[in-house]
From TrEMBL:
GO biological process: translation
Protein name: Probable small ribosomal subunit protein cS23
Similarity comment: Belongs to the chloroplast-specific ribosomal protein cS23 family.
Alphabetized GO MF terms: structural constituent of ribosome
Gene3D superfamilies: 3.30.390.140
UniProt KW Ribonucleoprotein keyword: yes
Residues of the signal peptide: none
Record keywords: Ribonucleoprotein, Ribosomal protein
Length: 111
């Protein structure tokens, strides 16, 4: 039974990927659903600080009743870490450095 539980947990962790656009004046967040060897967009990009990107992302995830509360919490916690990091160090940190700090996140951007 333990092996089954571990396998299930691994599958859940790999179901979603947080995507980030790292810019000088904004950071954008979106979630993709992992399908086989690719991904499919699950949410649009939400730009911080243009809007409350965290709340927008939460509202969108809450509409998807097939996503577990645990998965939502993990994604939102990760989004919080990225927003906080961008606020503190975004102007002096390159996208490559941010990618090193958050290796499970897909980054794109201009710096």
């Amino acid at each position: 039974m333990e092996a089954t539980v571990e396998t299930l947990e691994t599958n859940i962790e790999g179901r979603f990927v947080l995507k980030v656009v790292w810019l000088d004046k904004d950071v954008a967040l979106a979630v993709d659903y992992v399908i086989s060897k690719g991904t499919s967009p699950l949410t649009p990009y939400y730009f911080w600080p243009r809007s409350d990107a965290w709340q927008d992302l939460k509202d969108e995830l809450d509409k998807k009743n097939w996503i577990t509360d645990t998965e939502k919490i993990e994604l939102l916690n990760q989004a919080t870490e990225i927003i906080n990091f961008w606020q503190e160090k975004g102007r002096v940190t390159s996208m490559a450095q941010a990618q090193q700090k958050f290796p499970g996140v897909v980054f794109s951007g201009t710096n």
